[in-house]
């Protein structure tokens, strides 16, 4: 199953109030350029993925900062 699969046209309301007629899995809102999904379930999954990626990015940044302090700042302060 790909993104280009045809769906029966369905009216989906965007969060900004604009109503789009979707005939595919997802499309960009013509008013606010937000992603609008044919199935609300996909929208929640998309939001979850976005939050998950943000948390992962934060965790990586914190780890790098921690590793930097542990391996560079502490040995240097002991000299
Ligand atoms: Zn919109």
Let me know the largest β-sheet.
2 strands, antiparallel
* Range of strand content: 15-25%
Mean pLDDT across all amino acids: 89
Number of strands: 4
Total helical segments: 1
Shape: rod-shaped
- Number of separate domains: 2
Structural class: alpha+beta
**Which consecutive residue ranges, at least 5 long each, have pLDDT under 50?**
none
Small-molecule binders: zinc ion
Rg over C-alpha atoms, rounded to the nearest angstrom:
21 Å
The helix content, as a percent range, equals: 40-55%
Strand order of the largest sheet: 1-2
- The separation of the N and C termini measures 60 Å
Would you mind describing this structure in some detail?
This protein folds into two domains: 38 residues, no CATH class; 40 residues. Helices cover 48% and strands 18% of the residues. The chain has one helix and four strands; from the N terminus they run ββββα. The strands form two sheets. Strands 1-2 form a two-stranded antiparallel ribbon. Strands 3-4 form a two-stranded antiparallel sheet. It starts with 9 loop residues before the first strand and ends with a helix. The structure holds zinc ion (ZN). Zinc ion binds next to loops.
Q: Could you give a quick summary of the protein structure above?
A:
With 79 residues, the protein is of the alpha+beta class. 48% of the residues lie in helices and 18% in strands. It has two domains: 1-38, no CATH class; 40-79.
Q: Could you name the key traits of this structure?
A:
single chain, 79 residues, alpha+beta, 2 domains, two-stranded antiparallel sheet, 1 helix, 4 strands, 48% helix, 18% strand, rod-shaped, binds zinc ion
């Amino acid at each position: 199953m790909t993104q280009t699969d045809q769906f029966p046209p369905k009216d989906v309301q965007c969060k900004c109030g604009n109503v789009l007629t979707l005939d595919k899995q997802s499309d960009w809102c013509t008013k606010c350029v937000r992603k609008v999904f044919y199935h609300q379930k996909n929208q929640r999954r998309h939001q979850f993925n976005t939050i998950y990626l943000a948390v992962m990015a934060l965790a990586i940044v914190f780890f790098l900062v921690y590793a930097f302090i542990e391996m560079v700042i502490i040995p240097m302060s002991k000299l």
